[in-house]
């Protein structure tokens, strides 16, 4: 978790699930413990993660860049399938097929990770990002099926906080 990963209630990894349940049952104790070492334990709807208490400007700038990347990733995933959310299951091969067939999806994918040369590399990088954060887990190695975890709500909630106003709708102070 200290590396930006999440614990999710619906994890298929028994160790992660056990850790989540333990943190949920003893949240106040864990919160106090981690506060002493400069980490703030945060909980969402079915997930938990760490936030640093002291933020430098550089860290805030890095977070904004990362946030912009996740806005693009969410846009891509919702274009791939509007129901892409907690509990959704997907196969890497299906995403690859859709990128190969759908021009809009292919354009969005290429904007996500500009260094990847092939569509296969793009999909591998995307799935690596999702699993690395704990937003998805591999549930079937044979066919490459992944399941989206409750932690994915964090990304959806963060992007949902963005309010885009038309110039005529900007509230006056």
What features would you describe in this structure?
The chain has 173 residues and is of the alpha+beta class. The chain has helices at 14-25, 27-36, 57-80, 92-101, 103-112, 119-133, 152-160; strands at residues 7-8, 39-43, 47-52, 89-91, 136-140, 145-148. The strands form two sheets. A three-stranded antiparallel β-sheet has the order 1-3-2. The protein has a three-stranded antiparallel β-sheet with strand order 4-6-5. Strand 2 and strand 3 form a beta hairpin. The chain is globular, with a radius of gyration of 18 Å. The model has no long low-confidence stretch (mean pLDDT 85).
Q: Give the quaternary arrangement of the chains.
A: single chain
The 3D shape can be described as: globular
Our Rg estimate from Cα atoms comes to 18 Å
The largest sheet, given as strand count, sense and whether it forms a barrel, is: 3 strands, antiparallel
Summing up helix and strand content along with how strands pair, one would put the structural category as alpha+beta
Number of strands: 6
Give the integer mean of the pLDDT values.
85
Strand order of the largest sheet: 1-3-2
Range of strand content:
5-15%
Number of helices: 7
What's this entry about, in short?
The chain has 173 residues and is α+β, with helices and mostly antiparallel strands.
Main features:
173 residues, alpha+beta, three-stranded antiparallel beta sheet, 7 helices
What is the fold's blueprint, element by element?
Layout: E1 7-8, H1 14-25, H2 27-36, E2 39-43, E3 47-52, H3 57-80, E4 89-91, H4 92-101, H5 103-112, H6 119-133, E5 136-140, E6 145-148, H7 152-160
Antiparallel strand pairs: 1-3, 2-3, 4-6, 5-6
């Amino acid at each position: 978790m200290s590396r930006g990963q999440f614990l999710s209630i619906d994890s298929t990894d028994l160790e992660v699930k056990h850790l989540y349940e333990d943190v949920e049952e003893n949240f106040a104790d864990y919160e106090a413990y981690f506060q002493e070492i400069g980490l703030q334990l945060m909980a969402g709807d079915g997930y938990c993660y760490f936030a640093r208490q002291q933020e430098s400007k550089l860290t805030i700038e890095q977070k904004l860049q990362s946030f912009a990347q996740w806005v693009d990733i969410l846009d891509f995933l919702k274009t791939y399938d509007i129901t892409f959310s907690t509990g959704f299951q997907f196969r890497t091969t299906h995403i690859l097929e859709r990128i190969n067939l759908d021009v809009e999806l292919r354009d969005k994918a290429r904007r996500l990770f500009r260094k990847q040369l092939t569509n296969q590399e793009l999909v591998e990088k995307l799935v690596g990002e999702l699993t690395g954060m704990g937003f998805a887990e591999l549930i079937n190695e044979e066919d490459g099926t992944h399941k989206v975890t409750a932690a994915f709500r964090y990304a959806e909630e963060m992007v949902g906080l963005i309010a885009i106003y038309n110039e005529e709708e900007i509230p006056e102070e």
